[in-house]
Amino acid sequence: MDELFSPEEIKILEQSTHRRSSTKCYRCKHKRLPCNYQFPKCDSCLKENIECNAWVRGLNKPIPRSIPLYLEDKVANLEIELDKLKNHHVINNAEEESYTITKYVSTPLLQSFINSENESTIQSFSFLYFNSCNLPAPFDNMIEGSKRGKMKHFIENHPPVDLLTIPKNVVKIMMSNYMDFHLPQYPIISRPMLTEMLETVLNKPEIASSFEKAVISITMAISAALITNRSEKRALSSSSALFSATISTIFETSWESKMQKLQLTLLIAHYSFANPFAADIWHTLRDALRLCIDMGLHKEVTSEVITVLDVDDRRRLFLVCSGMLRHLSAVLRIKFPIHQNLISVEYPTIVDDSFITEKGIDYSGPQTKAAALHFYSFRLCESEVCDVLWYDKEINVNINDWIDSMEEKVENWFITAEEFAKVNQLRFRLICKASLQIRLRRRTPRIPNPSHESFLKLIKAVLIHVDEYLNDAKSAQVSYLLMGVHYIVEAAINLLDVLWFEIDWIKEVYSFEFLISKLGECIELLNKFSERWPDIKESNIPNYLENLKNDVIKKNDGLLNDDECNIISSKIEKLIFPTKIISKVSDDKKNDIVDNKVDINDDKNQSSDNNTINNNNESDILNFDNQNQLEEMGKYEHESLSDALFSDKSNWQDHFIDDNFWDLNDLLNKMCDYI
């Protein structure tokens, strides 16, 4: 920063109110040219192919349009130069100083945690569960509870960092990254409120509340976890130490405000998407949903009762909570727990927070939160796909016409989402699009035998998935690891399904060797992901898929007999339909689903890395009694059989009703009179 601005200029920047509202770049301002101020270059500078800089009142020189991006590029160049110098064994004081700058910017806070000696004793916490997330079903049942990621071990391995030991300029860079790129997509706390909290925590720590400290530490943890393209391991180490600080601070927080509790709960859920080894996404989101219902955020209120600011806060929090939960539920094939008829709350405004005051909303302000609403429109599509294909929701058109219309919606969503790339938002729009196309074209209870055309579209979407994640993994940009694991597992399972059952005609379009290589890349990605989420290897997912890949090759080479093929067919069926969801299907189809009895753990001795499963807790979903299930089938005609089949070891059952939480359905029934 010193090479960009003098201390006097930095003071002008900090006091300036024009940085975010400038309507002209530096060149257009001084040449008096029309300027649309597009990012990263306005049309005028783009046409001339010259650098486009920002203009700030009081500074008589151009400045970068995005200081964080400028610093990232600077860091990248410093790293390249440093590598060259290291190779030639020439490092003097100047280069050593450059290395120090690189370390602090690309690896924020590393030195701070190395020196941290905080070993706070973590006590029980009644409503947030800081253990690792569940893995994709049915693999979640293959890991022993004692080997899962636990809060105690996480804190021991990542001691909390003291925020006051972090250089303030590093804190500001991290927070700027969060507020500029991530907050607009997940508007949990308004930007003015977050800015005020940051000022208090940095400059008045003696009066900062534990809630404010927790918010700043976790938003910085999210920022660090999502900036992994320079030095992934160090950035994630930084993020983990910050999250440990959040956990420690949470236990000091007095939860007098349900709104604050909800905000912090949603921030933890956001972090869980990036680091599923640190926090349980389901426990966190279900608690957030219950808070929303308890406060009535699903219902619209008039501004006569509360201020415009409060109304918008209520709307945005429900949007974020329901959006996250719709996304996760759809990926895991679990119905969204609230019927749409019970939701009357309107959407929040998309204008920048600074244009929302107690007096009203200035709709002429920049639409900085448009990405959040665009995200939510995709989440609604995800819920629709899950309800129709897995829970047989009634539709007014032919199922094939419905699928075509959904694909058109997703395509239109993707095209619009590309506009957000100009401000570095919705970066994973292609992965989102491909993931929904996979769910539309794969085998489901509603369409157990898709057409050849559907299978070909499925493979195309799977290939996009694999290639995108391979590219991101190579550049260390797999930010939201939780979905990465679930998406790649689903891609691998569907490739196995095609290679095993459809290969005879698929060979006319794709070679067997090509598809096998893509399956191998899925396994390679899961091994890579396990470096950040050790539960993946503990559950033996990569080895299990590797064994099935080898079985597919043996079948193609004619090396398996009929009995062996039948066993493997049953295993793949269990991967395709892990929770045995049954909804308005025929008796013959019920029998087909129930007849598969081969346990996914039958070949657990094929690899020395397999885990021994406690017989007392082994999941019945993989090996259950036909007669008993057929007798009970009528009870589950409109529900998932997972309630009856999953053991306590996995929480992919009904996550909203158990002995530890109050009944969400009871609460909703009690509120029906008021809706």
UniProtKB/TrEMBL annotation:
Annotated region (Disordered), positions in chain: 600-619
Classification via Gene3D superfamilies: Zn(2)-C6 fungal-type DNA-binding domain
Compositionally biased spans, kind Low complexity: 607-619
Main location: nucleus
GO terms, molecular function: DNA-binding transcription factor activity, RNA polymerase II-specific; sequence-specific DNA binding; zinc ion binding
Gene Ontology biological-process annotations: DNA-templated transcription; positive regulation of transcription by RNA polymerase II
Any GO CC annotation of this UniProt entry: nucleus
Pfam families registered for this protein in UniProt: Fungal_trans (PF04082)
UniProt-listed PROSITE patterns: ZN2_CY6_FUNGAL_2
CDD domains, A to Z: fungal_TF_MHR, GAL4
Superkingdom of the source species: Eukaryota
Stretches assigned to the Zn(2)-C6 fungal-type domain: 24-52
InterPro entries: XnlR_reg_dom (IPR007219), Yeast_MetPath_Reg (IPR052202), Zn2-C6_fun-type_DNA-bd_sf (IPR036864), Zn2Cys6_DnaBD (IPR001138)
Name assigned to this protein: Zn(2)-C6 fungal-type domain-containing protein
Organism: Pichia kluyveri
Species lineage: Eukaryota, Fungi, Dikarya, Ascomycota, Saccharomycotina
